[in-house]
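Recap from last week: sequence in, structure out.
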Amino acid sequence: MQAHLCGRFAALKHRGGPGDEEADPALRKDWERELAAGGWTCVGWPKEYGGRGLSIAQQVIFHEEYARAGGPGRMGHIGEGLVGPTLIQFGSAAQRQRFLPQIVAGREFWAQGYSEPNAGSDLANVQTRCWQADDGSWRVSGQKIWTSLAHESEWIFVLARSEPGSRGNKGLSFLLLPLKQPGIRIRPIRQLGGGSEFNEVFFDEAVADAAHIVGAPGEGWKVAMGLLEVERGVSTLGQQMHFSHEFERVVQAARAAGRVDDALLRQRLAVAWTGLRVMRYNALRMLDGGSDLSLRREALIYKYWWSNWHRDLGKLGMDVLGEAADLVSDDESVRPLQQLFFFSRADTIYGGTNEIQLNLIAERGLGLPREARPAS
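Predicted structure tokens:
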């Protein structure tokens, strides 16, 4: 990292994280290819698929040291962390041969087509439709939303309803589509922090190749759930190093404002630091089980913990700044904390709301009775 995150890449240090995803995407794509040239993409993938086959402990070291050195947010994280492992587990040999080398090399980037206006936390309510045409290809019509970096991606995976009249998690299929085609329109959504890193994506008989369905028709839910199980992996330790960097920014702002002797503020800083350590130890406990991260109780609490902690850190940053936080600023000592505050407001919503996370903890982790649900 010292030898390569310099020169033209020096401007990327600590950039491109949550709330800052729009930072120089072209240069960050070049950085992906720089990583790939040294064999530093997909380090946990098996060697036969282009990875390094690193152990869990070695992957933790990589992600922590990458973040500690100021490594920028990864443009290829959806391909590397979600699509690749899913194709390794569920994809055909031809799909793995077509897509995995491009992900490893940093030549193709992916977006996630799950959420819809009426299918966020209730993912099984997807209404986007797909059907097979006479030539064997698939046609897709519908809408996806909150699609991060779709405007910077070449491909998208889409969960769509392939059996007319099916409901819930039945009758779904998992398709891979090129985004640069006439049947797809991408519209950015302007966010509270001023950026537009995510989008609405509209499909009007968009085309997926006949060979680009993962699993059999109707098995989309199984594939989709398998993908979500790998979402909370070893990169969580890298995420925490990014959080640690943000925490240090808050501490520096407190020192600059001459407020480190404020007893109440010091207490809140101490609580934030303690929460970050608790997060680390729980992640290590979670990873102690090896690659099975799906149903362990340690994994079930992770998202609820970090999202609330990060939201509170955003509040703390604004309180430390005081009146300086009230006006949008380009000052490098102010703007990052404003971005942290604005973006972290969404942490307890995306990726599963607090309410959904508490249901998962109660029902799967503690074995409590399932919440009453309306009859379908």
